[in-house]
Every structure is written in structure tokens, then in C-alpha cells.
């Protein structure tokens, strides 16, 4: 009997045991959907499964050495993936149509660069820009490649599948209705609800749980590489990450600026020292809506922690929370903090809708924050 070995953090062991049993018993579903929070290792698991399915070793899979394993892990085999791309990348010419010697980048070149980034660090949360989508052309390129596949097992990972636009989703649904033999689709998403219900219902759903704080630390260090500075993984950063190594790495890079800025945001909104706060916001480089909303997540965490502090509950980000001085504002109690939290959430959806410049939204938020309690 063939033994399957999928590796990963202990918190996600239960899902892997289930998958290994399906592989061993030769009843692996042809389409699965892995969902769960951002940066917890959905793509990493998808890659492990893809390799195990394509491996031809007679005793242990994946072996890492056979032709199937090599094809599964070769970042140059762009047919293994569908990834979101920016419009200008997705409309680049196909490699097959470019004359030899041309230096123009092809759609496969752009795709390969993304696949290399994912392979280097599958937890990374900022590989694709906010505007990148899976267009119908990308789905058609994928289905066209089936004609050339031959008999070997084919696995296609559709990363961040919720970024399929309507025409892509409808085209993909047709493929899902009749999946070719020896072909498997692995979809990953952190926004399951954005996927067509008809696509969801045709995939086996697997919900990947977050990691423990200790696993987050270990995984972040492991994929961070040699140049990664471990001292940036403070307790606050681990607290902000909520079980996601990808978010830990993201906040390790940004939190040292964002935590003090969030503390300032609260204190200066209360003292109505807007001029100074507005200068700081301008200097912060916060501009891209997706990034501004990540900063607002830090602000939400801080306000939630201030609420916890009032009720004596344990804190998620003790360092930042401990540095907020609320003593001068005894009127700011639980109801003021709860109202502030609602204002932050409202600002996040306003920023996501992109109707107004993100920085203007931040300035409006500071004017509104703790309204009636200043
Ligand atoms: Zn193998």
C-alpha cells in the first residue's frame, strides 16, 4: 500500500489526516476548496496535495524525486496554477505567439514571477495587488492547456479563487461540471462568500484552522529566511497575527510604525490635536486603500484591547495597549470605546469602496472618533 505524507503544523493535523486517508483509499475528490483566514497556509497545503497527487513513487508519496514531483514543484510549469493578475499582465501575449529573440514579457513570464513568490513563501499576504483579478482569459488559457496534457495526473491550483470575475466564474463552472479524468482542482480562498454558490457546491470544502501563537512564531521564522530579523516578532506582532504566520510577517514589517501611530491616533483624536495627527498621517506613507485598512485593523485591535483592559480580560497587544494614556479622559468608558470601534469598521468599508481618498477617510475618522466624549 502507498503511504502518503503531508507535512504541516500540528494545529492543522486533523485536515491532513483526512486528506491522506482519501489519497490512500484512492477516493480523492476532483475539486476541493480550502478556505480559512488570510496567511494561514492554504497555498502551502494546496502545493503539498498537488505534489502527492502527481507523485508516482510506489511506496511513499510525495517522494520529491520522481518526474511527477518535479513537474508539480517546477515554478516554470505555469499550467499548474491560475493566479490573479493585473489587467496589463493578463493581456500580455502568449509565449507561443512571441517570436524568438523578442524581449517582451509574456503572460507566462508574469505568472512565473508570481509562482516563484508563492513557492518562496506561501504564507505571504501581499503577493497580489488589490486590483489583480482572475479574468476569463486566464481560465480559458488553463482549459486550453488540458488538450496537451496526455495521460499523466494534472493538478491545477486556483489561488485566491474569490478573485474570479463573473465571466471567469461562469467559464470555470462549465469546467467543474465535467472535470476531465485524472484532473484535480484545488481552490484557495479567504473570502468563501464571494465565490459563486454553484462553484462552492461542486467542491469539497475544507476549513483550515489558524495556528497557535507558538506555531506562528516557528513558521514565520522558518519561511522568513536568513535575512529575517526574529526580534521583529514581538508579542504584539504575534497578538495581531491571530494564528496567521503570513500576517505575523506582514506586521513584523509594519507594526513598529503602525502601533505608535495607532496609539497617537487615539490620544490625538481625544486631545483634538488634529494638526499634529494629520501631519503624522501624511508622513506615514499610508495611501493604498488595502494597506490603510490593515492599519485600521491595528487600530481596531487596540480599541478592543482597551475594552478588555477595562474588564480585566487578558490583552492581545499588551505593549501598545499599555502605552495609551486614557487617565485624562475618565468619560471614555466601554460605550465610548464600542462606538469608536463601530466608527473604525465603517471607515474600513468606506475605504474599501474607494469612493474617497483613504487619507481623507482617516482624517474624517479622527474627527468623529469619540464624538461626544472629548
Ligand atoms: Zn514523487
TrEMBL record:
Domain AAA+ ATPase, residue spans: 28-211
InterPro entries for the chain: AAA+_ATPase, DNA_Rep/Repair_Clamp_Loader, P-loop_NTPase
GO biological process: any one?
DNA-templated DNA replication
Name the domain of life.
Bacteria
Per the UniProt record, one Pfam family is DNA_pol3_delta2
What is the name listed in the Swiss-Prot or TrEMBL entry for this protein?
A: AAA ATPase
Q: Which organism is it from?
A: Fibrobacter succinogenes (strain ATCC 19169 / S85)
